[in-house]
Amino acid sequence: MSSVKLQKTVDFIRRKVSIRPQVGVILGSGLGVLAAEVKNQQRLHYSELPHFPVSTVEGHEGQFIFGELSGKNVALMQGRFHFYEGYAMEQVVFPVRVMQKLGVRVLLVTNASGGINRDFSSGDLMLITDHLNLMGTNPLIGPNYDDIGPRFPDMSEAYDRELIRIAEEVARKNGLACRKGVYAGLTGPSYETPAEIRYLRTIGADAVGMSTVPEVIVANHAGIRVLGISCVTNMAAGVLPQRLSHAEVMETANRVRDQFITLVKGVLDEVNPE
Fold first, then answer.
1. Which long-range contacts (CB under 8 A, 24 or more apart) does 247-254 make?
2. Tell me: the pLDDT tens digits for 188-234?
3. What CATH number has the domain bearing residue 126?
4. Which sequence positions are flagged as catalytic?
5. Domain total for the chain?
């Protein structure tokens, strides 16, 4: 990451957007519907932003939306970047660095995942309690930016316990069935084999996906509190006798859109971004 490139992107956004975000939201595959709930929107397509990558995956619109959601000023990413798209890790996490410089102190990161825990079902929402970084790399490799965070950041509470408590209470009040579990991050883009899923279950994973982990590591490095919400859009390979497809991911995400919106907006109602 170049500090000069980062500052150029931040300065560009500040010139274009009057909103000063308190909360960042990263929307996963098929979950971009939340963007319609943002009031007083100011939009910037990723292609407009200097040094910014561009989303290439179906279900990722590829734009920043600034505005108000549940009384909080938000910077919402309608679409993220994945390591499997060919981007370097520093590009994958670049938006989190930008949001931190813009003033974001709380990050809600969402994803579509494959269910590994046999008690889960397609369409479940899972609050992420911890993760397994199985991507074979770490976004903090390289020179440390001491003005952002320490060389060796603590990850013992990568997903903020208070934010998880708030999300559980919101789910209870609204009659939402919310799971909790460990998310395994792999590179993709191929789905896992049944043998790999058996391995992941053995080492403690409840769900698996191809994102989230790099952004969460960088957010923690920068002192940003994180809440992770995973939409189990399909059961992982070998759990059910059927093949996997991205179309199923999109279909399931659309099916649970109302529950997802209720949960996120309810959390934002209660969260204190200071």
1. 248/122, 249/29, 249/30, 249/59, 249/112, 250/29, 250/30, 250/58, 250/59, 252/30, 252/112, 252/122, 252/123, 253/28, 253/29, 253/30, 253/31, 253/59, 253/112, 254/30, 254/33
2. 999 999 999 999 999 999 999 999 999 999 999 999 999 999 999 88
3. 3.40.50.1580
4. 29, 60, 82, 84-85, 112, 210-211, 234, 246
5. 1
